[in-house]
């Protein structure tokens, strides 16, 4: 277990290094990096300062090491647009995105797991068939389109829910949060549902598949023969066994929610880091782009690592496989 | 209703007695949903191909647009005597025509990028399976690494580096998608390689490239067709999303995604049709592709054989 965890952690560090090489090669080695990190109207002095700071007059491998060192110190240049350190700018926007992603994740679990259980236990009822068909829509629809429909209906036609921004926020621990105010919660509702829809469909299908797989197994039949209440069979025996894949998928999907928040934030003008990156790409604010890419890569690698470690902790069979 | 009309078309193929294609078609129409999807898809593709001839106007010929007709709701009469069935946009453009032209662009990008990605991914996957060793593990590492990031993020990364534009979007979609084909091709090739016909081909001292292309490839095709169908839908959705975010096709070649983006600002004033109908078309296209793909997967999967 310890050996495996260490190996997996080393592998994650390897992935991070590989990604930093890719981002470095993509952004710095293609084209003139000084142009990338300098705004077009920078003067000669500013230019010389940046070239010296990032060492663009040095050989490539040394430039990469400088890039890594700067990265570890959290310094990837200043945003041209906001004239603030790029990393700091993104970290400021991160809580809004996290809040949205966590809220959406909770919705998708709250909808997906019960719906999946129902579809797995009663696969032939019209409702289950309907839910399965609806789930095809859920994950094949482009999410920006799905987000626009509720704006049209609840925001514009009925006018009962706000469709842009975060609403009122409360400061707790130095960070602004929306979900602690009634107004903020209302603002959170539509973007949250939008982001949750796709994941709810996946979680539902996964839960259904898990239930269908486990129900015919001997230990369930034995539990039934023993005369256990079906509530207990489902709640304990079935749930415990389908939880493992669900936990894995939920973990991985959390990362992808942060990525997909880019779309949701653009539709609902949610002031998170996804909206920031789109604006930055449009304004060619490259220090922010580079910082966003590196932060998301780190976030993803850490999430994948945690999920993998959790998975081994939850399922002893994985550990046994590894030991062979 | 439409499918019986298509059946004779299949039967005219000069196939001998068992006629595998006909058998396949009969099994395909067993699913009403998939048949419906196929029918919708045929109609949409026809609309896209025939757009220049059947669209009420050429939406990008400015001489044909009348600014007086801008932002008319669906079913409004036009100043030239016709009817705008689904309304007009802010420049007085007939949305029906714009949708048909947009569908052309969306479908071309989706199908084109899926095919390019399929060729590249399949070749790399087959090579990995056949060569084995270092090449295989390196390639599969790259595939695993890439698939652990969501498609939209990989596409964003690529566009952040190479910039916006039609070709760059194509490039981004191909890079996002090749890994799926590589993984599928390798998986089915690993099964096929152990079969006797490959051994036989090796005994004949055929060149590796010939064995891979002429013997291995044809036997790995069924699962690839399924992936290809699904990925066309995903490519269309991804392109629409990128265009919606303003990172995709240029304004001179608006795909469905860009049409939706253009209409987005107007939905707040209740002029829903400018982005609603392109969105509806996009939805129909993607759902139809998925219905067909879902059923193809069941049909072509040997484990599901009843």
Blueprint (SSEs and pairs):
The complex is a heterodimer of chains A (324) and B (306).
Chain A: H1 2-29, H2 33-37, H3 44-54, H4 60-72, H5 86-121, H6 126-140, H7 143-157, E1 170-172, E2 175-177, H8 182-214, H9 218-225, H10 230-267, H11 273-283, H12 286-314, H13 316-323
Antiparallel strand pairs in A: 1-2
Chain B: H1 3-11, H2 20-28, H3 32-54, E1 76-77, E2 83-84, H4 95-131, H5 133-147, H6 151-162, H7 166-193, H8 196-203, H9 208-219, H10 221-244, H11 256-264, H12 273-300
Antiparallel strand pairs in B: 1-2
Helix pairs in contact in B: 3-4, 3-12, 4-5, 4-7, 4-9, 4-10, 4-11, 4-12, 5-7, 6-7, 7-10, 8-9, 10-11, 10-12, 11-12
Q: How much of the polypeptide of chain B forms β-strand, as a percent range?
A: under 5%
Given helix and strand content, the structural type of chain A is: mainly alpha
The strand line-up of the biggest sheet of chain A is 1-2
As residue ranges, the low-confidence spans of chain B are 1-12
Relative helix content of chain A: over 70%
End-to-end span of chain A in angstroms?
A: 12 Å
Q: What is the distance, rounded to the nearest whole angstrom, between the alpha carbons of the first and last residues of chain B?
A: 26 Å
């Amino acid at each position: 277990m310890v050996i495996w965890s260490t190996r997996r952690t080393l592998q994650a560090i390897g992935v991070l290094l590989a990604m930093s090489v890719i981002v470095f090669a993509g952004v710095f080695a293609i084209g003139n990096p000084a142009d990338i990190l300098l705004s077009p109207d920078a003067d000669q002095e500013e230019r010389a300062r940046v070239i010296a700071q990032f060492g663009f007059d040095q050989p490539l491998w040394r430039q990469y090491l400088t890039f890594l060192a700067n990265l570890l110190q959290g310094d990837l240049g200043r945003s041209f647009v906001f004239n603030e350190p790029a990393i700091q700018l993104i970290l400021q926007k991160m809580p809004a995105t996290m809040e949205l992603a966590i809220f959406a994740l909770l919705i998708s679990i709250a909808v997906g797991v019960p719906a999946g259980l129902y579809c797995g236990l009663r696969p032939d009822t019209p409702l289950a068939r309907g839910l399965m068909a609806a789930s095809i829509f859920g994950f094949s629809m482009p999410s920006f389109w799905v987000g626009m429909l509720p704006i049209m209906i609840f925001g514009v036609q009925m006018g009962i829910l706000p469709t842009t921004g975060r609403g009122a926020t409360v400061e707790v621990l130095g960070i602004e949060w929306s979900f602690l105010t009634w107004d903020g919660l209302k603002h959170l509702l539509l973007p949250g549902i939008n982001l949750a829809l796709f994941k709810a469909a996946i979680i539902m299908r996964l839960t259904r598949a898990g239930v269908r797989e486990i129900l015919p197994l001997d230990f369930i039949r034995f539990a039934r023969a023993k005369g256990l209440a079906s509530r207990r069979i489902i709640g304990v025996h079935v749930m415990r066994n389908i939880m493992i894949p669900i936990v894995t998928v939920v973990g991985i999907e959390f990362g992808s929610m942060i990525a997909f928040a880019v779309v949701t934030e653009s539709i609902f003008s949610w002031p998170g880091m996804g909206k920031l990156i789109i604006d930055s790409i449009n304004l060619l604010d490259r220090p922010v782009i580079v910082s966003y890419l590196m932060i998301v890569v780190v976030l993803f690698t850490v999430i994948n690592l945690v999920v993998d470690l959790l998975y081994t902790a939850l399922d002893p069979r994985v550990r046994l496989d590894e030991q062979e | 209703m439409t499918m019986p009309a298509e059946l004779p078309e299949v039967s005219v193929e000069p196939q001998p007695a068992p006629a595998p294609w006909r058998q396949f078609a009969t099994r395909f129409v067993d699913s009403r949903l998939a048949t419906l999807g196929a029918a919708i898809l045929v109609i949409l593709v026809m609309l896209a191909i025939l757009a220049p001839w059947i669209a009420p106007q050429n939406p990008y010929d400015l001489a044909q647009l009348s600014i007086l007709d801008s932002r008319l709701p669906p079913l409004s009469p036009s100043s030239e005597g016709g009817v705008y069935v689904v309304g007009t946009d802010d420049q007085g453009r007939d949305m029906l025509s714009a949708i048909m032209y947009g569908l052309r662009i969306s479908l071309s990008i989706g199908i084109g990028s899926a095919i390019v990605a399929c060729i590249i991914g399949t070749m790399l996957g087959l090579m990995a399976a056949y060569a084995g060793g270092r090449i295989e593990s390196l390639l599969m590492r790259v595939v695993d690494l890439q698939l652990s990031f969501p498609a939209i993020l990989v596409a964003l990364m690529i566009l952040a580096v190479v910039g916006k534009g039609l070709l760059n979007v194509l490039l981004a979609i191909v890079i996002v998608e090749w890994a799926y084909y590589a993984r599928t091709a390798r998986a089915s090739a690993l099964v096929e390689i152990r079969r006797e016909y490959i051994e036989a081909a090796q005994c004949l001292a055929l060149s590796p490239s010939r064995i891979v292309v002429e013997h291995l490839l044809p036997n790995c095709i069924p699962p690839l067709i399924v992936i290809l169908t699904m990925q066309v839908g995903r490519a269309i959705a991804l392109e629409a999303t990128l265009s919606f975010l303003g990172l995709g096709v240029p304004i001179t070649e608006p795909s469905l995604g860009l049409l939706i983006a253009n209409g987005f600002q107007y939905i707040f004033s209740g002029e829903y049709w400018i982005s609603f109908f392109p969105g509806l078309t996009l939805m129909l296209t993607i759902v139809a592709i998925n219905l067909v793909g879902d059923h193809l997967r069941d049909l072509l999967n040997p484990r599901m054989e009843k």
